[in-house]
Design a protein that fits this description.
Elements (H helix, E strand, L loop, with lengths): L1 E4 L3 E6 L2 E8 L3 E10 L2 E14 L11 E15 L2 E12 L8 E8 L5 E14 L2 E13 L17 E4 L2 E4 L6 E14 L3 E3 L3 E18 L11 E14 L4 E14 L5 E8 L1
Length: 274
């Protein structure tokens, strides 16, 4: 559930988690979050600065859009084997009205000098009108004696998570190094507008078929020697609007099943504000 006041304050409450954002002007965002992840109590406070650019949109007027974002935050993890504090810094090249690709590089560093670097990217190619081939990739590199909360997981593979003790845990082994990626074919399903019991409108529906996989390694010399985890699935992405378009919503419905590795077929659903 998300509560917001204009575009200045947003508070979100979910299953075992709460987060909030405060926006000051166009460029500044302050945030906090607390919750339970894989049995650990986690909390964070952060700040992000976003720069804006003026793309050539063909319009006679001036159009502004987010361009580059820099984020810094402090994190506290309270686990069964003790507490951990670490700092985070990220640089994000955001998608634009002209190009939907994005890129990111993130750093996590502990007071002991250990940490990790994560590089991720997304891009897509139009095969036919309204038909796109999409690709994502993530590379993670750890250094020093990495504490368990900072080990990499294959969190993007939804069929390799299971419920345990009121939370979700990964069935894949974590590691200090990670390589993962996905390929998806996005197809338009419908352009018709539908009225949902006079409460909201379905503005658009898109379909997506995907294959995703990855692996984590404990040591760098194990690279390529671990059998990867791979899943396939289909998703429906639904764009909705309520209150005459003042409240845009985004729904995701999908099913994924493992084809390599120990996982379980799963049905998932999500609803969020755009």
């Amino acid at each position: 559930m998300t509560l917001s006041y204009l575009d200045r304050v947003r508070l979100s409450v979910g299953e075992g988690a709460v987060s909030g954002d405060v926006f000051r002007g166009r460029n500044h965002r302050f945030s906090f979050a607390a919750g339970i992840e894989t049995g650990d109590l986690v909390g964070s406070v952060g700040y992000a600065f976003t720069s804006f650019g003026r793309p050539e949109s063909g319009s006679a007027g001036t159009y502004w859009e987010p361009d580059i974002s820099v984020a810094v935050s402090g994190h506290r993890v309270i686990a069964g084997d003790g507490a951990l504090f670490y700092g985070h810094c990220g640089l994000f090249d955001l998608p634009s009205i002209q190009q939907s690709r994005w890129r990111a590089i993130e750093f996590d560093l502990t007071p002991a000098g250990s940490g990790r670097v994560t590089v991720s990217a997304f891009d897509e190619v139009r095969l036919f009108p309204r038909v796109y081939l999409q690709a994502t990739a993530t590379l993670g590199l750890g250094f020093g004696q990495i504490p368990p909360p900072l080990l990499f997981h294959l969190g993007e593979l939804v069929s390799f998570w299971k419920r345990q003790g009121g939370g979700w845990i990964a069935t894949t082994s974590p590691g200090a190094f990670k390589l993962s990626g996905s390929l998806a074919l996005e197809l338009p399903a419908s352009e018709e507008l539908f009225n949902v019991v006079n409460v909201m409108m379905i503005d658009g529906v898109r379909g997506r078929a995907f294959v995703a996989g990855g692996a984590c390694w404990t040591r760098f010399d194990e690279f390529g020697k671990t059998i990867p985890s791979v899943e396939v699935g289909v998703e429906a992405l639904v764009e909705l609007s309520a209150i005459g378009g003042l409240l845009p919503l985004y729904a995701l419905v999908g099913v994924a099943t493992p084809v390599l590795g120990e996982g379980t077929s799963i049905f998932y659903f999500g609803l969020s504000l755009q």
